[in-house]
Amino acid sequence: MKKLLKWLLPLIAMFALGFTQSNTHQVQAATSRLSAIKSRGYIVVGLSADYAPLEFHATVKGEDTIVGADISLAKQIAKDAGVKLQIKEMGFDALIGALKTGKVDMVISGMSKTPERAKQVDFSEPYMYEKQIVVIRKADKDKYKNVADFAGAKVGAQKQSTQEAIAKAQLPDAKIQSLQKANDVIAQVSYNKLDGGVMSSIIAGAYVQKNKSLMMVDPHFATSASPTVVALPKGDTALTAQVNKTIKKVKSQKLWAKWLDEAYTLQNQSDSFWTKYGSFFIKGAINTLIFALLTVIAGTILGTFLALMRRSKLWILKAIAVVYVEFIRGTPLMVQAFIVFFGTQVLGISLSAFAAGAIAMGINSGAYVAEIIRSGLNSVPIGQTEAARSLGLSNSQTLKSVILPQAVKNIWPALGNEFVTDIKESSVLSVIGATELMFEGSTVQGASFQPFFPMMIVALIYFVMTFALTRLLGVVERRFN
User: Fold this and answer.
1) Residue 223 CA from chain centroid, whole number
2) For 224-264, how does the pLDDT look when each residue is reduced to its tens digit (9 = 90+)?
3) Radius of gyration (Cα) for the chain, nearest Å?
4) d(CA 79, CA 153)
């Protein structure tokens, strides 16, 4: 144990020092962000595209495109700065972290200015003011009319949003539930899981227009209207001034109302459901299979090495394998995905959401596969090793030609189950914006305003993929037998 601590403590100190130095470097580099943007020729905006009509997915000229009034603003900012626009989509609660670590240059996602966020990032001048309301079912219109009426009611709001803060502060007697996306709030209100949802009036209006069973009520919150702003890196006065210049232009030329009208037109396209959203499901299914394939390859290779390290007589190799396996198995995949996605950026390595997701899944799977392989190796009778050695085979030859073939036959069912699990677990990666099947299904939920039907399609696709893989693994197992 003392040897293990001697090895671990310096490693932890090294990582801590690296993170501190990286954060200091970010603060110092913030003032030069605009010049860096102009030098590379594009600006990166972060957003959560489930907030129609501000940002949402739509099929434009046969292609999946993120559109909305906020996107028009982002394009105008890029145009005025003389650069192109690049969009990075991720969960709303990951946006501030992405901005702080340099994954994105600005956040335009219907974000309101709050004291807590102001400690982390800077803000532009407001480009819109949003009135906060509550979405309820029409059947309850006589039940909920003001703040006091929501005492004891179950009320939802999007996680880490202004609406969540308002709900917790001004509906203290209500049971507040924080959800990942705005369409999750609407879905739970629609299906009687929640009594109401605190939302921006402009966003709620888009949902209520599509769902005739819902309506908006003004409970007379103390906060009458929230300013919607662009979030920018802390201390970057040059970039903030550039963005404010564009916002001033938008207000003087009255472009915002025009952009909203264009967004509503895209929302109300009359194409069939499959014509508009079929490509989303296909893209998501393909990416999920790619994630699973990469995870199987990485997990098998990494797991084999870890299993052999745990059987090693060298204590350092054994210690590394034990710490790795126990840590990875003891933490959720979602946390590991966040660490890889943001942690690599802090260390100066910029990974896409797809690459970060694939690496996180490979790292996660490796720990579980290691234990599966180790148990398989231990299941081979010791007599097999003794017989091989008596025939003159070396340790490596015994392992390769005698032990591993028998171990693989024993562990194949468990290994196959791990492969099937990899397909389903990729759904966790939607939080960092990796475009797998669950991410695309959630996107369709927000764009179509149908909370239930897209998830049924997602479930069916997952079933088809896992069922087909299970049958294929069964064929291989029978060949082994």
Assistant:
1) 30
2) 678 899 999 999 999 999 999 999 999 999 999 999 988 88
3) 26
4) 47
